[in-house]
Amino acid sequence: MDSQHKAGFVNIVGNPNVGKSTLMNDLVGEKLSIVTAKSQTTRHRIMGIVNTDEYQIVFSDTPGVLAPKYKLQESMLSFSEGALTDADILLYVTDIIEDPLKNKNFLDRVAKEKIPVLLVINKIDLLKGNAELEAIMDRWVQLLPNAEIFPTSAKEHFNVNNLMNRIVALLPQSPPFFGKDALTDKPARFFVTEIIREKILLNYSQEIPYSVEVLVEKFEEKEKSIHIMAVIYVERDSQKGILIGKGGAMLKKIGSEARKDIETFFDKKVFLEIFVKVEKDWRNKENKLKAFGYIE
Fold first, then answer.
1. How far apart are CA 119 and CA 28, in angstroms?
2. N or C: the chain end with fewer CB closer than 10 Å?
3. How many Cβ atoms from other residues are within 10 Å of residue 70's Cβ?
4. Is the pTM of this model over 0.90?
5. Exposed (0-12), middle (13-18) or buried (19+): which is 47, by Cβ within 10 Å?
6. What is the pLDDT of residues 201-216, one digit of tens each?
7. How many angstroms separate the CA atoms of 189 and 214, rounded?
């Protein structure tokens, strides 16, 4: 391996709904993290790996930082806090709307970091003029004086290339951590569960998306096709009824939308069966959180 080869872990942190997942998908060039307008869309820490002959960047998308209300959110917060301890470069993502002092404790920890911190101010396409942006940047300079600031719009791909170039410049010299053909550290089944969960987030409102977890019970891959059996877990019988819908119409819609995206992701024909089961209060049950991969 070339002694000039660079490699490093770049962890993406910040509050919910500022565009962390959109940014990571843009940087990686693949849709790995689900993106919806709802907060708390990302529950796991998801790695996306960018490889060239000269470098390997291991991006890590983390759940939005929030005060936990139940065991699931405690686990989500631990993924975000863990991201502060094992990064070579930290991307702290905010946007033009967010109150900079929301989650001040976490921000104070970021301010003390010795590693390079790149502050990404996202969604600048929503601003009316430069004066607004300058005022926002001035405020952030006070809070994170050591950070380099990158005003961006991940959705419009604005200034993302400059951000990427800076990341590459800051990477330490190191052999790669993963095989050069690796795109992520997650197994294929994980992306199936995330795609199904994304469709639920997009099609249902209120509590349903947050009470749902998806488990792939069967994943049989052949040369040209994949047969998948997935179970959607909910916390209450009433949620099961809403999820299935009248005459099974809603579940059919979810299945059809998810199947199309799964076929695109794997570039194969997909046969998808989805079932719904009730698992009362799973978000507070340690054995269930282990089964769903939230607790080691």
1. 18
2. C
3. 14
4. no
5. buried
6. 888 876 676 778 888 8
7. 10
